[in-house]
Amino acid sequence: MKQLTQITPEASTHWVGDGFPVRNLISIPRDARDTSPFLMLDFAGPYDFKPASAPRGVGEHPHRGFETVTIVYQGEVAHRDTSGNSGVIGPGDVQWMTAASGVLHEEFHSPAFTQKGGTLEMAQLWVNLPAREKMSAPRYQAILDAQIPAIALPKDAGSVRVIAGDYEGTKGPALTYSPINVWDLRLNTDHRVAFTLPEGWTTLVVVLRGQVAVGDMTIVIGQTAHFTRAGNAIAIKAEKDSLALLLSGKPLDEPIAHYGPFVMNTEKELSEAIDDFRSGRFGKLEHGY
Length: 289
Known about the structure:
This protein has helices spanning about 30-35, 110-115, 265-280; strands at about 5-10, 15, 20-25, 40-50, 55-65, 65-75, 75-80, 85-90, 95-100, 105-110, 120-130, 140-145, 150, 160-165, 165, 170, 180-185, 190-195, 200-210, 210-215, 215-220, 225, 235-240, 240-250, 255-260, 260-265. By secondary structure, it is mostly beta strands.
């Protein structure tokens, strides 16, 4: 069994733009060297927005060197980037954007959600790219809820949506640059479930709703459980009906040079990314949905 090593504390909420009240559950400065290939995870909401005339969100900003994975639970988010990709994702949908050599993009509440208002709840995960892929061409995957297989857990313990990787022979639709699992868990109260995971991989469980236990340790909303890379399984018991992300991946174990929205391997590459952005080499974003 993989052993629980730490539980990160609950984080306070801060705003990203005017549309995303987020808690930072995995942090690059604090965690990234131990959570490779996962860099960061923000959880937004649940938060109730009133109808508005102008969309709320975060305006044009750059990324290079990694991927953003946006999972929507409630509400709708609209995206546009300099690679010509745009679209709206709603409940159950996932947007997997590979920034790689560099994109500018913006994320706002969709026009329909802006007009009607409602509850927004979503998670955004940053996945690091191997050094050899950091300057590859950007890529965009819009993954709809209907494309994501949902597997019932034994003894009515809940279900697993396989966004990426493989669960008991069922593969997720996301294309990845290194071996990872991104599993979206729904766990039923008082049920215990064991998950088989690869030896040597990073393993994290992030609680988004409810409350779970690992052994005699309780993990509540907004906390992340970290496990040893040694071992090939973990066991979780739901103490309440719970929503969680189980993240596991083969560590890259490469140097990390980070500044804001850029994640490279060396300070020289980081300086080049900043210079390319400031010089306009990330392209021009065409506005309007």
